[in-house]
## 1
Amino acid sequence: MSWWPPEVAVHAEQFRKGLRDLGYVEGRDITVEAHFTDGNRDRTRAVVRKLIEDKVDILVVSTTPAIAVTKEEAGSLHIVISLVSDPLAAGFAASLSNPGGNLTGMTTFSPGLVAKRVELMKEIRPELRVIAFLGSSRDVNTGTFLRNMQTEADRSGLRLIPYLIDGPARIDRAVFEAMRHEGAEAVIVQPIFMGHQERIIHLANAAGLPIVADYSLFAHAGAMFTYGIDDHAQMRRAAYFVDRIFKGAHPGDLPIQQPTEFRLVVNAGAAKRFGWAIPLSVLARADEVIE
């Protein structure tokens, strides 16, 4: 189950691939249902309750808000988490090495990711002075995300303009025009808005602002570059935890794993449209370059 909309259905497919790689045959060994609740808390709660009624064995849940709702409803049902930035700060686990309770899985937490994005922006455009941040006022991880970004912006001599909205419905042209009016030259987008990348990039482009984000879906939709964990690899890895639980392991005894695979995807065409020249040093490090 994902807090994101159906536009990120590729995550479910990657999870299924992870199961196939472990030898599972869907329909013979395992049944997988995929649910996308598009940031709707009531819909998320209804899905969880229905899955409990259906007596599912394991819930694989992506994103912090969805896990928070799931933990409220799921009782002792086994939970595998994925694409969660900080399960300790969110109160989901006692520790990474020994999470306890009925939960285990993967976190996206990796010190330095936020700093690396800002560093890349400065490497691409040394004269950069002002950046904006589009974040969620309802995500418990936003504060940490913003503090880390402010620290790196200060270190890099950048002014950071934060814009926090309470959901995707609040994403409109006026937000990006306000950023531009305040002098923003580019926008970093919080990953909670994945699935709405097409609209975000369309509106930002109309305001003359390039986008930088975590996940490659944004780069393929027209963001200038993305740098973050390999979300596809993490969804495939979720299958490992499901396999361990099916074989008798208790979730709370399985350490929550931190990411080891990262991807830099550069959209050279998008950069060119905004007059940003991507240095060869960045292109050489990219895992993928979109022309």
## 2
Amino acid sequence: MRPWWAGSAIANGTLELSYQYVNDAKATKTGTVAIPFAATTANNVIATAACEMV
């Protein structure tokens, strides 16, 4: 997966991605990745990822 985003204005917020997988013990696991971001006028995005597994 290769996420792509192009903002059209100066903005900030949080991009949240949910996921699900089956581990070696055949148990289904889920989680969410939250990526806070700030977009600038120079067409840059500054972000830091944090992962939460359930």
